[in-house]
């Protein structure tokens, strides 16, 4: 079986810092793609995330060129958790 890519939109309520970026990014909704590979089990098929890519800038920022930036999955989860704790 092949790998797959899933897309989602994540929302940051507060500005956040991505590793490798000097300035914080603004709060808003961001598109994230996850590359996943299958984990075949006895009873069902599961998927494991092996890579993540965030699209910059935020979705609401019209007219700007977009770039897809790779991000470590654990870093992204930490940033999201921190954002939720600030609420």
Architecture overview:
There is one protein chain. The model has no long low-confidence stretch (mean pLDDT 91). The protein is of the alpha+beta class and 87 residues long. It has one domain. A hairpin with a 4-residue loop joins strand 2 and strand 3.
Question: Structural class, from helix and strand content?
Answer: alpha+beta
User: How much strand?
Assistant: 35-45%
The tally of strands reads 4
Report the radius of gyration as a whole number of Å: 15 Å
Count of DSSP helices? 1
Helix and strand pattern: EEEEH
Major sheet characteristics: 4 strands, antiparallel
Molecular shape: globular
- Strand order in the sheet with the most strands: 1-2-3-4
Task: Describe this structure in a few short sentences.
The chain contains one helix and four strands; from the N terminus they run ββββα.
């Amino acid at each position: 079986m092949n790998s797959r890519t899933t897309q989602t939109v994540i929302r940051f309520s507060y500005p956040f810092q991505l590793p490798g970026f000097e300035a914080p990014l603004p709060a808003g909704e961001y598109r994230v793609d996850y590359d996943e590979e299958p984990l075949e089990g006895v009873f069902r098929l599961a998927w494991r995330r092996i890579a993540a890519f965030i699209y910059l800038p935020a979705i609401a920022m019209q007219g700007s060129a977009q770039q897809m930036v790779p991000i470590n999955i654990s870093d992204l989860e930490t940033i999201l958790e921190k954002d939720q704790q600030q609420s």
